[in-house]
Predict the 3D structure of the following.
Amino acid sequence: MTLRINHNTAAINSWRNLEKTDRAMDKTLEKLSSGYKINRAGDDPASLVISEQMRSQIKSMEQATLNSELAVSMIQTSEASMSEVNNILVNMRQLVLHAANEGANDDKMLAADQAEIDNSIKTIDTIASQAQFGSRYLLDGSNGINGVAVGEGLRYIQSDVASHSSPADGFIVDITESATKSRMEGTRSLTEAEIATGGVQFTFNEGGRNFSYFAKVGETMDSIMNNLHLLMKQNNLDLEVGLTEDSRLYVEHNQYGSEPNFGVVVSTEGILGDEANTLIEAVQGRDVQGTIGGELAFGEGQYLTAAEGTSAEGTVVEYMGGVKTIPQLDAQGNPVIGADGQPVPPENIPEGAVHVTNNALTFQIGPNQDQTAAVSLPSVNTRILGRGVENESGYTSLGEIDATTLQGAQDAMKMIDQAIYEVTAARGNLGAFQKNTLESNLNNLRYASENLIASESRLRDTDMAAEMSHFTKQQILLASGTAMLGQANQTPKSVLSLLNAQ
């Protein structure tokens, strides 16, 4: 046994362990009092980084949930106003039907019907101008996508919410191939002599519908053409029949593009097709081809649609003309000759431009950047509803209808039917957006937030049972360490016993 008084190693060791226990006790008390096992970066640096990122996502998801709920409220407000417009339109149709019953109506009855129709139109316009969510007007057209096409034969159809607003000069439309119809022509004319010798049998097939016609002896070309026109209309075949300048028979589909087609069987060769009594398919039509805004676009019939991912994505235009070109001429006005010795092909020139203004409503429905959804709210003003409906009364929109005449009432029904379709289609789009985009997103956010909170809790929250066990352990160690430090400090006193013994 060695006894020293300058350095009490046992006391130093006891003090060091007591200090360690005291620090551990402080951390345990902090965890128990705060409820968190990570209170500073030094507690667990890696877990702190992960948990703080999770906290950021959790808070963002909570805000995204509130955003989506607010968006649902706005959509429901818009749809409720459009529902009332729908009810008014249905009532207007009933009034127009009453006015169309000309045989039982007098002038006063018609005037009463028209007065109520006029009042309904004013009510719809009032809803369009006053429907609001907060201070934002909903159905006046300020939250929709509008467009106009500039160029001969060019017509704007629609744009998607993904489309950007066009630059000042619009999205340039350049057509490289115009649309055509499927067509069939005879190689020779049908003579009355052929009809007189036994007649000619025709069978037409289009869209799953068909009919047969026998040109009998004694019929003229005019009567044959008239009968074919009548039978095509009666059997709902979307075809047109006629004669070329040199009196050859032709049949043409009324719709443009590569999809519509038809077939013909003729008992005499050359009248339509080279073979007799054989089904001959018409020459397939072509879809329009070109670009919108200098980027890829796809054609279907006369409709050209900007491809996904382009600036004009979803923008649709209709082109009803031919390809515009400019010849390549030299300074003297002669055709430019290429390296192959042939004239250089003419250069395509743009057919026009489409100007798009996208004011669709965009909602931040996710916790991160670019996690948005957009929807367009249409205008329900009567100057906008019912546009483009062909009618004999010259109505250009729903707001012009007049049911005081029989023809006016008939055309008013067409306008109202179109307006009902436009409003219900818009309501359907809003309903789909609410159900499939917003509400599905809300469910996903709630599930994700719940799971993320659970993950963050496992990283950061104190396990109270485990910490109480540690606390009890530290209490015992603290009491034991204090006692042992006291015992260690008694050891140097033994030296006095040795000295006293002398």
In short: The longest helix spans residues 45-100. The mean pLDDT is 88. The chain is about 45% helix and 20% strand.
